[in-house]
Amino acid sequence: MSRRTPETNTTAAAPGDAGPPGSGSTLVDDLAARIRDMIMGGEIPIGGQLRQAELATTFGVSRTPIREAIRQLQNGGLIAVHPHRGAVVRVPAPWEVREAYEVRAELEALAARRAVARITREQLDALEHDNREMYEQSAAQGEGRTPVHRAANDAFHTLIAGVSGNARLTRSIEEINGAFPRNVSSQLIVDDSRHRDENFAEHERIVAALRTGDADAAAAEMRSHVIAAGDALARWYEQRSSTVFVG
């Protein structure tokens, strides 16, 4: 039985596109991650257009991998493509936010429960430091400025998820967090002092439960905290989606 000789692809790669096998996927994944970071940080705002030519120039590539990266983000629900506007950062419906945060609340509650038996004193101290940093940075910022405290808030939740010792759980939490632009929830803490105070106090209660080794309390406090954050974010979209964003 004769064996078929594999065909050789002699098509030259376009400038900026990937050449060697496998590198195309890596380039597209990298571009998708970088565009996602621009969206999460508010550099490309909600409802804003993603212009392929501008992105290609920004990243020094051709439009082909940019197009594939946009398609990847569209499949993930972060971007929508409209007939006359092209690709835009999708405006999530309030009910989508509440549903996602309901799931996130259960996942992070499980992470907090698992973390009780694994967390160290140094990690607990790090959580308290992150919480104070989040509060102080957000309180010092003015309305409309790009939030710089987001890293501290994310570090708080990321540490607990990591300590849970379940990689699949951590990935699931990250996937939900990546479904919505993070700059919006961060700006809420800056603009609303009451929400900021509540967020700080909720974090404190989570750390207290972790310190005392109360798994039930840690899970309950985390669940309540995430649900409250989801409600605040959903209300923000409810108040602004009909007047600010164009779909």
From TrEMBL:
Residues 8-17 have a biased composition (Low complexity). Residues 25-92 form the HTH gntR-type domain. Pfam families: FCD (PF07729), GntR (PF00392). SUPFAM superfamilies: GntR ligand-binding domain-like, Winged helix' DNA-binding domain. Residues 1-25 are annotated as: Disordered. PROSITE patterns: HTH_GNTR. Keywords: DNA-binding, Transcription, Transcription regulation. PANTHER family: GLUCONATE OPERON TRANSCRIPTIONAL REPRESSOR, TRANSCRIPTIONAL REGULATOR, GNTR FAMILY. This is GntR family transcriptional regulator. It comes from Pseudonocardia nematodicida.
